[in-house]
Write a structure and sequence with these properties.
The complex is a heterodimer of chains A (337) and B (433).
Chain A (H helix, E strand, L loop, with lengths): L23 H18 L13 E6 L5 H12 L3 E6 L8 H13 L4 E6 L4 H6 L5 E7 L5 H15 L6 E5 L6 H12 L3 E5 L15 E3 L2 H5 L4 E4 L15 H8 L3 H4 L7 E3 L12 H4 L7 H18 L27
Parallel strand pairs in A: 1-2, 1-3, 3-4, 5-6, 5-8, 6-7, 8-9
Chain B lengths: L3 E11 L4 E10 L2 E6 L12 E4 L4 E4 L1 E6 L12 H10 L2 E6 L10 H14 L3 E6 L13 H6 L4 E3 L8 H14 L2 E4 L4 H4 L4 E2 L2 H6 L3 E2 L2 H17 L2 E4 L5 H12 L4 E5 L1 H5 L21 H12 L5 E2 L8 H4 L16 H10 L5 H8 L1 H6 L15 E11 L18 E11 L2 E5 L5
Parallel strand pairs in B: 1-4, 1-5, 6-7, 7-8, 8-9, 9-10, 10-13, 11-12, 13-14, 14-15
Antiparallel strand pairs in B: 1-2, 2-3, 5-16, 16-17, 17-18
Classes of the chains: A alpha/beta (337), B alpha/beta (433).
Chain lengths: 337, 433
């Protein structure tokens, strides 16, 4: 991440690639701004002009409906022009395609690129080759920073703080970028983080990220303030990493019995889309007193508006419309160094 | 009429005899005629050419026993010509190339092709390891005996492990009849499949698919059982974990005919050098943690590890300028073998003669080549190097066609000034001598 220490801007990063390199003050700044956008979004006509004349490109190398729609709405509500590009990577997963696409788009001079890619580090690699700001909308099993930010905003609006809370993140930690971003954010903000999963879904040395690992749901959920369920990809089940859906649901699916050991007012979260009856019992998912899953979706738009806002120079900035024009060719560098 | 070249005012280091003293050396045509502390003590030597070594180290040329060349099949990555240039610039006078080319070196014609190209270039001596299995596919035995007769110095499937236990047992059993050396790439493919970095905090933080460390020792322990059963000569390439080194230490104590080498990344780098998805640091086996790096150094110091090879694996931009998980593994290293090995001297782990043994006479003995020593009558394959000069590795300035050096940007000490093969200078740095 490029940091300009002399800049007065509250978010001095050029890109938003991950939570790990953010400070607590920067996270608070994003959440505070997002709070304001929540109010805007609840107005009858939630349309602003902050991004007027700016182009946001949603570049998705992996299928997504929710995140892409959320970013699209965020960009449009700020008055920007939003273009969605889906690039199939299943047939040819060649990275040169990634960099070619990045440089092609860069030549069209967008202001912000929102990128999702199935490989960890791919968004970082792409950000080195473009002049515009880049937001990581999920890279492989690395990070998904806006998801962690919207989760944090959801918790903060419900409970009023993050500091001192006990958060249990449950499910496929190994393959979850949501888990990694949340672990970083919650640690930075002073929460206690637990992860709960069968050993085949726990990454090696996960404790070194600042969590306590559990392989038993009731131990992991005991007295938790927040229960964060992760999506389990069905293709990883049926004998590969867990024996079966049925067995996974029995031991690691969230139901009323397991939830009973958490705090009585514990909140249930899920980044979606849910596998009802697999990682979460359907009555719990729909329990309006406990589940904040739809809050997460709503606040996601506001958080993404805040991120787009903070990565866009003010319109009256003399550099705003020429940013990058005099910069050296993005090809001047070389990957792999 | 013979051509004589006198090297005067040198620090002569011959690791095979333990000699490390000021002196001179005389070559006559392709062979060493004489050497010693008192040679030329009585005055001007009788030679056509006199080279003043200026007190620099004169040693046997380096022997790199593990070098992948892209020829045939991937000559956009490295050719026999380009690797020869890189080797000469790095003080390497002989190397053994890997057979996992396209087509594989699994028959006499491919072996002949490499030998012919090397003869044409007349620089660093290029020997070939031949395949253990046809096409390096791990299923059917290659013609090991005929390949050995045709000049293969060892057998390996290159970057591919011989994974099938029955195939490995047959290979070792068959090879024992011909007293051949089999070299294993020690990674259990089932545990490695899809992985990109050693399982641990680094891979977890970066979200990279993990490779468990046990993948190495599991394959080696299996092979050691087969070695005990067959008595074949067995060599483990680029050992990288503490457990593997300990298992090999014990096997040597039991008297099994086993040897191993390591490569500079495994004693000089750790997984932390991956940094922010630096694909030049994606290797096979993957970089390990600090404890493993220290175990590799300890294995070099106590002699468990027999040799240092560069494990030179050229990869082009298109193979590396991609997301880490799908980047090709491997790094170039033949040209930086000398300064990277010298780090062990500069860091106080080994003295000069013991270090040089790991890159000269010991790999020569493993491959049964009459090279790697300074003695009257031995081939005049020499390197003259400045052991102390500091420089910064610039991958773009290296001679390899591919520039994927994991040491790019590293401050190193020591550099070849002149490289001599069969009495002929094949590389000379103008600044020196």
């Amino acid at each position: 991440m490029t940091v300009d220490p002399s800049g007065p801007a509250p978010l001095p990063h050029r890109h938003l690639l991950g939570i790990e390199t953010l400070s607590g003050a920067e996270i608070v700044r994003i959440l505070d701004l997002a709070d304001g956008y929540v109010a805007v979004n609840r107005r009858a006509m939630p349309k602003l002009s902050r991004l007027r004349g700016r182009t946001v490109v949603n570049l998705f190398f992996e299928t997504s409906t929710r995140t892409r729609t959320s970013f699209e709405l965020a960009g449009k509500r700020l008055g920007g022009d939003v273009i969605n590009m889906s690039v199939a990577t299943s047939s040819v997963r060649k990275g040169e395609t990634l960099l070619d696409t990045a440089m092609t788009l860069n030549a069209m001079r967008p202001h912000i690129l929102v990128v999702r890619h199935p490989d960890s580090g791919a968004v970082d690699l792409l950000s080195q080759k473009v002049n515009c700001a880049v937001i990581n909308a999920g890279d492989g099993t690395h990070e998904h920073p806006t998801q962690a930010l919207l989760d944090a905003l959801t918790i903060r609006r419900r409970i009023g703080r993050l500091d001192g809370l006990t958060v249990a993140i449950c499910g496929d930690i190994q393959h979850s970028r949501v888990a990694r971003s949340n672990i970083h954010l919650l640690n930075i903000m002073g929460a206690r983080v637990r992860v709960v999963a069968p050993p085949t879904l726990l990454p090696a040395a996960v404790e070194e990220l600042g969590v306590t690992a559990y392989t038993d749901m009731k131990q992991g959920l005991a007295d938790a303030d927040i229960v964060m369920m992760l999506r389990l990809q069905i293709e990883r089940m049926s004998g590969r990493l867990v024996p079966s859906v049925r067995e996974y649901n029995h031991f690691f699916g969230l139901d009323a019995d397991k939830l009973a050991v958490a705090r009585p007012d514990a909140l249930i979260m899920h980044p979606g889309p849910m596998n009802r009856g697999v990682e979460i019992d359907t009555t719990l998912a729909d329990d309006i007193n406990r589940s904040v899953i739809l809050d997460q979706v709503e606040l996601g738009v506001a958080v993404r508006m805040a991120c787009l806002d903070l990565l866009t120079p003010p319109a009256d900035d003399p550099d705003a419309d020429t940013a990058g024009a005099a910069a050296p060719s993005p090809l001047a560098g070389e990957a792999g160094r | 009429m013979s051509r004589r070249v006198a090297y005067v005012n040198a620090r002569i280091v011959d690791p095979a005899s333990g000699l490390d003293a000021p002196g001179g050396l005389l070559t006559e045509d392709a062979r060493i005629a004489d050497l010693g502390p008192r040679l030329f003590a009585d005055g001007v030597p009788d030679a056509e050419t006199v080279i003043d070594c200026g007190g620099l180290v004169l040693a046997p040329g380096l022997i790199d026993m593990r070098v992948k060349i892209g020829e045939p099949g991937e000559d956009h990555k490295e050719t026999i010509a380009s690797v020869s240039e890189a080797a000469a610039a790095g003080g390497v006078t002989a190397l053994a190339c890997l057979p996992d080319t396209d087509p594989a070196i699994d028959g006499e014609p491919a072996l002949e092709f490499v030998a012919r190209r090397a003869r044409e270039i007349r620089s660093t001596k290029i020997f070939a390891c031949a395949a253990i299995t046809r096409g390096c596919a791990g299923a059917e035995l290659a013609e090991l005996g005929l390949l050995a007769e045709a000049g293969a110095v060892a057998f390996t499937d290159g970057r591919r492990a011989v994974a099938d236990s029955l195939v490995m047992r047959r290979a070792l059993g068959y090879a024992s009849a011909f007293d051949l050396l089999l070299i294993q790439h020690p990674e259990d493919p089932a545990l490695v499949r899809g992985g990109a970095a050693t399982a641990g905090a680094m891979a977890t933080r970066l979200g990279l698919p993990p490779i468990p460390r046990e993948a190495e020792v599991i394959l080696v322990e299996r092979d050691l059982r087969l070695v005990a059963a067959t008595g074949a000569r067995y060599h483990v390439a680029h050992v990288s974990t503490a457990e593997t080194i300990e298992v090999l230490r014990q096997a040597k104590r039991r008297g099994l005919p086993v040897t191993c080498d390591t490569a500079p990344p495994y004693f000089a780098l750790t997984e932390a050098d991956i940094g922010a998805y630096r694909t030049f640091a994606k290797l096979s086996p993957p970089l390990r943690g600090q404890a493993d790096r220290e175990a590799v150094v300890a294995g070099l110091v106590d002699g468990t590890i027999d040799a240092i090879a560069s494990d030179h694996q050229p990869q082009d931009q298109e193979s590396k300028r991609v997301p880490f998980a799908i980047a090709e593994p491997g790094g170039i290293g033949v040209e930086t073998l000398l300064p990277m090995a010298l780090e062990l001297v500069h860091n106080g782990h080994l003295d000069m003669a013991r270090l040089l043994a790991l890159v000269t006479c010991r790999p020569a003995d493993l491959l049964r080549l009459p090279l790697g020593r300074l003695a009257p009558g031995a081939p005049a394959d020499l390197v003259l190097f400045d052991p102390d000069i500091g420089w910064i590795v610039d991958a773009e300035a290296l001679s390899s066609k591919s520039k994927n050096s994991p040491f790019d940007g590293r401050m190193v000490q020591g550099r070849a000034r002149r490289t001599v093969v069969d009495g002929r200078t094949v590389f000379a740095d103008d600044i020196a001598a």
